[in-house]
Amino acid sequence: MRKFKQVFGVLTSVLLVFTLVACSNAEQVNSKNKGSKVKITRTSKKVKTKGVGQIRTIFYQTAYQGKKYNKKAQVYLPTGFNNNEKHNILYLLHGSTEVRNGQSTLLKDGNFKQLFNKLNNNGRLKNTIVVFPTYYPSAKFVTSNYYQDNTLNRNFGKNELMNDLVPAVESHYRTYSNLKINSSALQKSRAHRAFGGFSMGSITTWYVFQYDFPYFRYYLPFAGDSWTVTSDGGTNAPRRTAQVLADVVRRYPDFKFKIMAGVGSGDGTRGSMEPQIDAMKNLPQFNNNNLQYYVQDGGTHSAPTFNKVINYYATQLFK
Q1: Which of 4, 51, 121, 221 is the most exposed place for a label (fewest CB within 10 A)?
Q2: Is residue 27 packed enough to be buried (19+ CB in 10 Å), middle (13-18) or exposed (0-12)?
Q3: Residue 61 gets which letter from DSSP?
Q4: Residue 14: pLDDT above 70?
């Protein structure tokens, strides 16, 4: 957390520079890591959308193992988006190999634009920005061996998310931190911030719970257990895993939270999620109000099933 506070202390002291970018649907944000000066270049804050929700792309910089990488994330802006108004924000992370051209394909694979248009228009999840990042620093890290992704998943939750991605997005789009990206503003607005993920993105969601708890109130892990103790921790070490997560809650007794976990009925990851969830429910830090587990009937290990789980939990977000 010291690195996080140092980064945001520097960020708040630097003058933000605005410029138009060449592509009308992209916003570019370049942020330098770990205590160095930060230069942010972005389009005007007066962003509005008409008709259905719109997709934008935001660019930012991160560092991994001493090397800098230029990255991008897709951003869903709801119907009628007006950047003069505050918005809830949900970050959704893909599973293993679910990227193309350096960008997450979860948005398309799960048909999430249509879902969030519907949820916004029928009032079940209104005024919510949804961000689709990738945990891969670059294409060279993509491999079919998803166990190798675990180091990247932990790094994303522990470092990249709060040091690089959140500053890039929430200094440009108005959330309840009101364009402020210091620790205090982000903690005060945690009730309006959520994180979820599919498969290895779910493993990352548990890391976000562990490392970024002061900044997120809502968590949506789908089809993946916590690997913080060991790979396949829900199967191999459910009690120890549950204890690590309970320790996080004990450190912040005044911070409310809600975990809305899910899986498809035909998904093999039930075998790792359910022992962990059961072990968590045996601890006093967790109960039926702050820890829920939903099995989607007929669901599989897929982005479309994640879509249905998000739809199921939509009315419980940001309440």
Answers
A1: 51
A2: buried
A3: E
A4: no
